[in-house]
């Protein structure tokens, strides 16, 4: 009998727990690799704000604190329910280009105030 067969017969719960832990580990390792590769691409850094982006995406792209962006734009941020910049502009009744200019001006201010390289 194979080693796997013997483990299945004698230690079924331990084997299932190990396989579940391995699956969770692989999932998070894959997720880590995906996000590391995505955000290390220079094309995703300091992107000009667009209507499809969320405040969190823009904050990550520009390496500024999300809370500072939320406070600077005076918006209600609901975790787990991101709204796009176009939706936020519509909520304000402001034209999208004017709102995007406001977002970009805030980003420049926050980036200049951030210590470090």
Structure description:
This protein has 117 residues and is an all-alpha fold. The relative contact order is 0.10. The model has no long low-confidence stretch (mean pLDDT 89). It contains 6 helices and no strands. It has helices at residues 3-10, 12-40, 55-62, 66-73, 85-92, 96-113.
What is the gist of this entry?
Helix content is 68%, strand content 0%. It has helices at 3-10, 12-40, 55-62, 66-73, 85-92, 96-113.
Summarize the biggest pleated sheet.
none
Poorly predicted parts: none
Helix % is 55-70%
C-alpha geometry = elongated
Keywords:
single chain, 117 residues, 2 domains, 6 helices, 0% strand, elongated
Summarize the helices and strands and which ones pair or pack.
Layout: H1 3-10, H2 12-40, H3 55-62, H4 66-73, H5 85-92, H6 96-113
Helix pairs in contact: 4-6
């Amino acid at each position: 009998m194979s080693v796997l067969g013997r483990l299945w017969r004698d230690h079924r719960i331990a084997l299932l727990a190990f396989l579940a832990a391995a699956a969770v580990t692989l999932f998070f390792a894959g997720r880590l690799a995906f996000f590391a590769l995505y955000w290390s691409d220079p094309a995703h850094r300091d992107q000009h704000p667009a209507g499809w982006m969320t405040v969190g995406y823009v904050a990550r792209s520009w390496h500024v604190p999300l809370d500072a962006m939320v406070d600077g734009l005076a918006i209600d941020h609901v975790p787990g329910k991101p709204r796009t910049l176009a939706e936020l502009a519509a909520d304000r009744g402001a034209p999208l280009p004017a709102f995007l200019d406001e977002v970009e001006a805030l980003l420049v201010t926050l980036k200049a105030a951030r210590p470090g390289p």
